[in-house]
Structures
1.
Amino acid sequence: MHMRKFCQSVLKSDPQETVAHGVWKQRWVAVCAVPLLAFAAHAAEPVLAKGSVKGAGEVQVTAADVAADVQRIPPEVRPQVLTQARTINQLVTNLYTRRALAQRAQAEGLGQNPEVVAALALARDKVLSDALLVQVDRSNTPSDMQAVAMARTIYKAQAAEYAEPEQVQVRHILILVKDPSEDAAAKAKAQDLLTKVRAGGDFAALAKQNSGDPGSAEKGGDLGFFAKGRMVPEFDTAAWALQKPGDTSEVIKTQFGYHVLQLVGRKPAGQKPFEEVQEALVAKVRQAEQQKGRNELAKTLEETVKLDEAAIKATVDKLVAPAPAAPAKK
């Protein structure tokens, strides 16, 4: 792999963060570095858990430890995670357990093991490098005003990407047919509802009371705007045949049952308003500018590195060499 590509892969930002079933995933480049460094001193912090552990001595977890650890949880879901007593208690317990094991390992001299020393150095490198990346991102993040201006430029330059086809907005009442034996009764009910609508009945109220589509029934049967071809063929044809707001279709049958449709409005082809895409574009701009800063950093690193191919090969050979055979039993 080309060194620049390697450096850029290490410095690549990833905006996706997910929380599911109480388990959170970290960003590829963790944002926890600054808090981890900032809370290195615990003396004045409240103690949340403590105990005396054989082989480890006195063990304690402070508020600073928790404050640093929770940085790995995406900010938008942090409150719902931390306000669950069971979750926060488990988090503190996990930190206590980890510290007890670490202190015991230190007491047993494992901190002097060459592999452990190397691993600790790598962990320190990661925390510090992540802290620097946070700083680089911050220095390359445009202000709100700048980001909006850049987003508008993209919006104008890529107008075709934000084009929208003609759309219709309809509401419907669905009478479900779950079994062929229900077909005649469902059709008759749909026809009766259509008669009531055409006699001046309140379509939205009738939809709430009778529609078998729970997603739209609560909204008076409203399906919102949609482009041609988005619905099943029979429904699509009937919807696009309606001309004026308030027009109703005849009873139509689809794979779901019988429908009555009413046109709410039409929207001509055009472009999505900037305000509708502004948030996503601003986020795209900010990430692109941050990545640009990381790419520049990667380039400077690429220009300094000198690989010793022979030493690398010797290291790989040593790592993949088969383990020596156990001595034969006499």
Note: The chain has 13 helices and ten strands.
2.
Amino acid sequence: MRDTKESRLLLVLLVAIAFALITVDIRGGRNSPVDGARHAAAAAFGPVEDGLSSAVDPVGDAVSAVRDSGTRHDRLAALEKENAALKAKLGSDDRTRSRLKQLDRMLKLAGEGQYGIKGAQVIAIGSAQGFSWTITIDAGADDGIRRDMTVLNADGLVGRVTTVGPGTSTVLLANDPDFTVGTRMEGSDELGFASGQGDRPLRVELLNGKAEVKKGDRLVTFGSQADKPFVPGVPVGVVSRVDPSGGGLTRTLYVTPYVGFTKLDVVGVVVQGPKKDPRDTVLPAKPKPIPTPTVTVTVSPGAGTPQSDNATATNEQQ
């Protein structure tokens, strides 16, 4: 529409009529003369408004979601943090229970052997001394640890102390190639020397080349003068292979150690040896053999055997 004098006059007239209708509607209240027109307009334009509302509502929901997204993100982050803390606590509790179990078993072994031990925890693997198989423990001179003390855990012989600091010590593990310990066979008392071979079984040279040895035989430490570096009776391992006797002065055995050297955690340093040799009392109980089931089949003559059928046929002929 062009901006002319007539258009401006028409606009003023329409505005005046609108104000007049509003005034009449307000003064009329429920009996307003324009109430019928309002209902007619509602009936005509209601479906259109409803459609527009349906189209606009998702947009409004999206706007609300964006507005609340910051709060929801903060809540989600808080829940994730609580979940991580709970998992860490459960993991810590599991580790604590595992250590308590190891400590309990180690104290039981020390009690059976009458060893006075100082408990310690493995805090590092390897050392600056160049040893291939060593660990560092959190106990040292301030805890009464001295060089050449036996180290054990709940399973048996771990190694011996080689270097001592004020609060830490280095332990040479029994599977290190530079490690050697005197051993004694359970029952037969055959003596020998076990040497480490890294991740392979220990190699044992028996002093008696004609000794009777078989797979499954067990060994303990023989002990040293004044219990240094080894106290007697500590479980070493189980014979896994025996080399054929070639008539030599010694006989070679291969022994699977009781201790898992790649998963050490809680250990004990023997600070006081036993008053007497515990012999084989510290060895774990032997597993009971599982009986092999046998099936006995008993065959007895019956009506279905050929002999019975022949006998029946003969009787019928008679």
Note: The two ends are 135 Å apart (CA to CA).
3.
Amino acid sequence: MTRKERWQTLLDLLVERGALEVEAAAGTLGVSAATVRRDLDLLAEQQLLVRTRGGAVPHGVSYELPLRYRTSRRAAEKGRISEAVAALVTPGEVVGLTGGTTTTEVARALAGRPDLTQGSPALTVVTNALNIAGELVIRPQFKIVLTGGVARPQSYELTGPLAEQVLGQLTVDTAVLGVDGFDPRDGAATRHEDEASVNRLLCERARRVVVAADSGKLGVRAFARICAPEAVDVLVTDTGLPPEAARRFEESGVEVLRV
């Protein structure tokens, strides 16, 4: 196990358990207690946790892993989902992308499509995610529109009145949402109300709304609602979603693609 993999596992365990003890973490990872102590010290230096006597606790009252430490979760599923979402996009469209690990993979899948290597533009991408804009801006065939706003370091998303002001002036063909939860009764949601507000406006400005989410986020409720299930046209997820659960989304008017 590499150091990056150990760090990812330690942070995941911290989220699940609410606290870590060095000896227990060492047993889970199959490494020495000294290695875990060093890893926790380094993570504490990055303000990702707080060291305690014999372990660690989350940093601050509200705890969320930064985007860079969430990219390896369900990587295979996200790869399939992103390719399927990218295939729904027609050359010349205006595509809106929210922040998140899955939508970042969608952006990469769009960049890799051979039929989108040329055009004036081949795609127009509207996003409030700094990392997505940074990856796509080097593609001269893509027109990149980045909203203004205040940056959240955990997700690289721009939020607030400036972002909403820009989105309010635009129209989008396809909006691709990354979510923290999508329930067939409660709809799509995220943990943070400021992100939800921007994402909600993006949905309202779009002709078609696509939720890109792995099955672990489905049937799950999150704090801040983005939109009702009826506002979502297509859900692209993995085959971990049981057929019965898929039917509940379809009964809400959502087309479900399991890949």
Note: Residues 64 and 74 are 17 Å apart (CA to CA).
4.
Amino acid sequence: MSVTDSPAARLQALFEGHRLTPTQRRIAHSMVRRAADVPFLSSVELAELAGVSQPSVTRFAVALGFDGYPALRRHLREVAPAEPAAEVGAHNEYQQAVEAEIENLRHLSEALADPAPVQRAGHLLAASRPLLVLGLRAAAAQAHGFAYFAAKVHPDVRLLGEGGTMLQDRIDAAVRAGASALLCFALPRHPREVVDTLACAKEAGLTVVTVADSAFAPVAKVSDVLLPAAVGTGLAFDTACAPMLLGRVLLEAMCDDLPQAQSRLEEFDTKAAARGLFVD
């Protein structure tokens, strides 16, 4: 089965072109994550999965043009027939969280069957001098990790890891210095400040590349290139293995567009050895 024929891809196509509310985007995101199971879920089960009310699921189905959720489910069974996923069985809650992350990584792998979006993003990031990397609150660690490694191959990486009124000043300064792109990591819960900052970045003329938890995330409307990678929600705090891996894939794509990337890495290794920086 190609990625365009997968249940998740068919669901994505079903949602495209519809103006969804934040609650409806949450339902859509949950359906994509459990694409193989959705045709077999009741409206109550889907509501529990998405963490919304049952009437919200009904309104969501109507917003997609169906008479109600039963009509939507019949449609899904016709266009995306699939066997329900195997039961988790004896897995405990920690194992279930790991299995969910494995599934998120599997979905990311399917999405990367078409490398063009990531390659385009890598080209945009490599060409920006300086390169801005934004990540606030839950996404701060993702942004920091990307910026740390990117600085080893890119000549000027500027991390925006803390919010506040200085964000706009730092964006303006980067634009004056020649910046053309900003990379944003955006994870739930989505800070309003991130959406506002991306809007300001676009107004300043920057191309915005965003790694987000869903194609329906609030940052989608202020992003030029959106690369989705789902987070795990089975534990008290979300897990972000797929967004982290997608960040590393982006680094690889950016390196492919930086002719001096390999020589910069070799130079760093030589200096690190001379300084005794790492324990062998």
Note: The longest helix spans residues 93-111.
